[in-house]
Design a protein that fits this description.
The complex is a heterodimer of chains A (356) and B (299). Chain A is of the alpha+beta class. Chain A is built from nine helices and 20 strands. Chain A has helices at 41-49, 91-101, 106-119, 135-147, 165-182, 193-199, 217-222, 227-232, 265-271; strands at residues 3-12, 15-25, 30-34, 56-61, 64-65, 76-79, 153-157, 185-190, 202-207, 210-215, 239-248, 251-256, 259-263, 276-281, 286-289, 293-302, 307-313, 316-322, 333-338, 344-346. The longest helix of chain A has 18 residues, at 165-182. With 299 residues, chain B is an all-alpha fold. The chains are: A alpha+beta (356), B mainly alpha (299). Chain A binds chain B through residues 46, 49-51, 70-72, 74, 76-78, 80-88, 97-98, 101-102, 142, 145, 149, and chain B through 186, 188-189, 191-199, 202, 207, 210-211.
């Protein structure tokens, strides 16, 4: 099912939940709504589900406006963070509830529930009550309940947030595989950028009710359209500097306090002559070197495979990953090399990218 | 060396036992007056009269057991008033249960103009002593009595009228209690059911109501007891045995003109107490959940 949101807005008095969201989700696409809590992603999802009525704007399913269609007639399945299983019903009754409401004949109901339960690996738990299941099993039941009516649109509201880290990883790939196998258009709300990046075909980044960007994960990472997207996507986050870009001897230089980098011409020319701009460099493009900008180590965080260190250059803290076991300590003086090929520039006032 | 360690351990074990027994001892002692009271009531109902805690006959000798105190059971009037007590109690269970479940749900889930004010007003109403309202209620019941048909059921001097007043007085508490239970339920469950295809009413009936069953049961028990023991309202708004209830019937034994037959009062009192006692034995767990579940909900 193709889903279009046109200027979708939700307000409660002065409180803005979603502010003029415009996006189109293609048939079979897996889209993640990514943003910090309170950014309006769940509000938008609940409007798509029909639980909230939009204040303004339209929701279209396959070209038809569904604003006034109640949730039960939208043919959607939804998985909640809290699982939202019915505690007084068995697993079988939980999964079969949507079918019971559709008045599906008993025999077919039995068959469909069993098939979905087997697919989710909970076929042997059908007689249990939700309270007797582990968190992961409960989430599978919730997923089974959403899938059993064969919906045309699947909605996920932070479904993995309540699971422990390891289970989250396995459920992540399971959901992704399931979505590819079944080909159901899906919207996945999360505040976890790794989840969004790994699972989604396209990611919609939201902040304060507004859509910041809507693009495939790699594009989001390499060509962030706003300062917020650049800072929110990627872990550890992008480093930002206040710089001025000038031309000297035919080369573009980005100069700030304690820093002077030569940047590629095609990027530098878009930031030159604008006075102060914000330059962004990802941690993986910064490395320790014998020559370069000098700074003092602020923090050392061992992560196992790498050490995350925080180096103060002038007034800016720069995060970078280094090999562990270098024996670096807080207070050490180091020199940093910046790989400027992928450098980003942003307008400090509009916070929009100067490049894309 | 080893023996002394053993001794110390044995001593501390004994000490621990004594400490853990202390609460039981304290509770046992404090419960004695209550048990003695029950014992006295039971003995009194079967004896001519009592002296201290012992049954005595007319000459003051120990003995004098008799069943004459229970003769009221042969009076057809007792069954009439028992039925009335039962009707009032059941009326309260159904009336308060039904109305507070609906109202509590609406107040918990819906946002409408005047919601806060309504909640506050309900609480204030609960603070009113029924005694303050007697005259006003009397006027209302008289008015209802004037309405054809309805007046016969809910008017002045009817069992229905008494039940109606009792329900009204108990509603604020019931509403707040049920609202508290509903507040504890997650919205997601309702949303899930709506998406699964249930109508608003089915969500309430099939998904939400089963979750508040313990609260509903506790409320029902509370109201049954309140209705069964009702005295002030039936005493004030009924005239004559046909519509009075057990408590009012009990009152006539301690009349102003004749000496009080305490042993008879005890017998009728015990008769009134029995259903409650039996009821309580089976429902005490649910009854206690009213404190556990209902208290958690805020506004």
């Amino acid at each position: 099912m193709k889903v279009e949101l046109v200027n979708l807005t939700k307000r409660w008095g002065d409180v803005v939940g979603a502010d003029g969201i415009n996006l189109t989700i293609e048939h079979g696409e897996f889209v993640a709504f990514l943003g910090p809590s309170g950014c309006g992603k769940t509000t938008t999802l609940l409007m798509v589900a029909g639980i909230y009525k939009p204040t303004a704007g339209e929701i279209l399913f396959d070209g038809k406006v569904v604003n006034a269609v109640p949730p039960k007639d939208r043919n959607i399945g939804m998985v909640f963070q809290s699982y939202a299983l019915y505690p007084h019903m068995t697993v079988f009754q939980n999964i079969s509830y949507p079918l019971k409401l559709k008045k599906v004949p008993k025999e077919e109901m039995q068959k469909r529930v069993q098939r979905v339960a087997d697919m989710m690996g909970i076929g042997h738990l059908l007689d249990r009550k939700p309270a007797q299941l582990s968190g992961g099993q409960q989430q599978r039941v919730a997923l089974g309940r959403a899938l059993v009516k064969e919906p045309q649109l699947l909605l996920f509201d932070e479904p993995l947030s309540n699971l422990d880290a390891r289970l989250r990883l396995s459920m992540r790939s399971e959901i992704k595989r399931l979505q590819i196998d079944l080909g159901i258009t899906s919207i996945y709300v999360t505040h976890d950028q790794v989840e969004a990046m790994t699972m989604a075909d396209r990611v919609a980044v939201m902040k304060d009710g507004k859509l910041q960007a809507f693009s495939p994960p790699d594009e989001l990472y390499e060509r962030p359209k706003t300062l917020f997207v650049a800072g929110f996507v990627g872990n550890p986050p992008m480093n930002f500097f206040d710089v001025e870009v000038v031309i000297e001897n035919g080369e573009y230089h980005a100069r700030g306090v304690g820093i002077d980098l030569v940047v590629p011409a095609e990027r530098g020319e878009k930031a030159v002559g604008r006075g102060k701009v914000i330059m962004g460099v990802r941690p993986e493009h910064v490395s320790l070197a014998d020559e370069g900008a000098s700074g003092v180590i602020n923090i050392v965080e061992p992560l196992g495979r790498d050490d995350l260190i925080d180096v103060r250059i002038g007034e800016t803290d720069v995060q970078l990953l280094v090999e562990p076991g270098l024996g670096l300590r807080i207070g050490d003086h180091v020199k940093l090399h910046f790989d400027t090929e992928n450098v980003q520039f942003f307008d400090p006032d509009t916070e929009k990218s100067l490049l894309w | 060396m080893t023996t002394t360690t053993f001794e110390v351990e044995a001593k501390s074990g004994l000490w621990r036992k004594i400490v853990s027994a202390l609460p039981y001892v304290a509770l046992s002692i404090s419960i004695i007056p209550i048990l003695v009271g029950y014992y006295w009531v039971i003995i009194a109902t079967f004896s001519y009269r009592t002296e201290g805690l012992f049954p005595v006959d007319a000459n003051g000798n120990i003995g004098g057991f008799t069943l004459q105190n229970w003769q009221f059971l042969l009076d057809p009037q007792i069954w009439r008033v028992t039925l009335n007590s039962f009707l009032i109690a059941i009326g309260m269970v159904i009336g308060v249960g039904f109305l507070s479940t609906l109202t509590g749900y609406a107040l918990s889930r819906m946002n409408f103009r005047g919601r806060k004010g309504f909640l506050g007003l309900t609480l204030v109403l609960h603070a009113f002593r029924p005694e303050l309202l007697l005259i006003a209620i009397f006027q209302v019941l008289l008015f209802i009595a004037g309405i054809p048909l309805l007046g016969k059921v809910f008017g002045f001097n009817t069992v229905g009228g008494v039940a109606l007043v009792m329900v009204a007085l108990e509603l604020p508490l019931g509403i707040w209690l049920m609202k508290g239970f509903f507040d504890n339920l997650s919205w997601d469950m309702e949303r899930a059911a709506l998406i699964d295809g249930a109508s608003r009413f089915r969500v309430w009936w099939e998904i939400i109501l089963p979750q508040v069953k313990p609260g509903l049961a506790a409320l029902a028990i509370f109201n049954f007891i309140a209705g069964w023991n009702a005295y002030l309202i039936p005493f004030t708004f009924t005239i004559g045995a046909k519509v009075s209830n057990l408590s009012v019937y009990l009152n006539q034994f301690s009349g102003d003109t004749s000496p009080t037959g305490w042993n008879q009062v005890a017998a009728v009192g015990l008769f009134q107490l029995l259903p409650i006692l039996i009821f309580f034995i089976f429902t005490q767990e649910t009854l206690l959940s009213i404190y556990g579940g209902g208290a958690k909900g805020g506004t």
